[in-house]
Amino acid sequence: MSSIEEYRQQLSEQVAAARAQSNELRRGSALESLSARGRSGLTQGDIPDTHELPLEILANPEETVENRQTALQTLKLLAISSRTFSEWRPAYLEALRIALATPELRLAALSTLVPQGDRRAQELLIKGLEDPEQALVEPADALNLLSEDPHADVRELAGKLVDQSTDERTQEAAIRHLAGDPSSVERLKAVIRDKQKTTNVRKLAVAALNALAPESLPVPDTEGSINLDRPINLTSRSADVEADVDSVEEFIRILANRRRSS
């Protein structure tokens, strides 16, 4: 190789190295700016011109969780405002799936994947409800996320969780799934009857049953006791009056009075 060719090769290598260093510096500056904005809270005016860098950061397990969280926030805004979102949507979904491997990012990633109609995300959530050892998020979070998916039918699983779970958030999320299921009337009545469950859970079951099948809602025979096994009969009265009426029974009474006056 002649000295001229060697010089040209050296010059080419120097130019390539300089460009790489310049690109890395620009990337570092953009990343630092993105991270700073993330700490102060991103707004629509903060989103960058392109999606490439946030996608790269989100999909890179070597990046810090903080930077990847900020990248995800940025991408959520870009997904709304970008005219080319449909073109890079597949890469966005793939980056979110990669993020599922990081526990700190799972809930945020799933909260984005499910509304995007990602079947794999739905399958993972359902599998986690069926087998807690495979769960990516808490059962309550999984149920709440699946409620945003019109194609996810988890009423059977929700019914089991209402019966078996002792976690209030999980029971509440499960009851919301049962609120539109006519076959859940007896289960909702059982929840209302079960004073081992929290007041909030029982009240939510009352509201669900009132919307689903109000004629099945147990109502007070008098201003005191409530017969939880007797269907609605607003004209009936009983001589048995219980002094202590819990707030759930009072809630039932209020609903009954509203139906009577309507």
From TrEMBL:
Q: Which UniProt keywords apply?
A: Antenna complex, Coiled coil, Lyase, Phycobilisome
Q: Which Gene3D superfamilies match?
A: Leucine-rich Repeat Variant
Query: Cross-referenced SUPFAM superfamilies, in alphabetical order?
Result: ARM repeat
Q: Which domain of life is it from?
A: Bacteria
Give TM segment ranges. Answer: none
Which intervals of the chain form a coiled coil? 1-28
Family under the similarity heading:
Belongs to the CpcE/RpcE/PecE family.
Query: What is the designated name of this protein?
Result: HEAT repeat domain-containing protein
Natural source organism: Nostoc parmelioides FACHB-3921
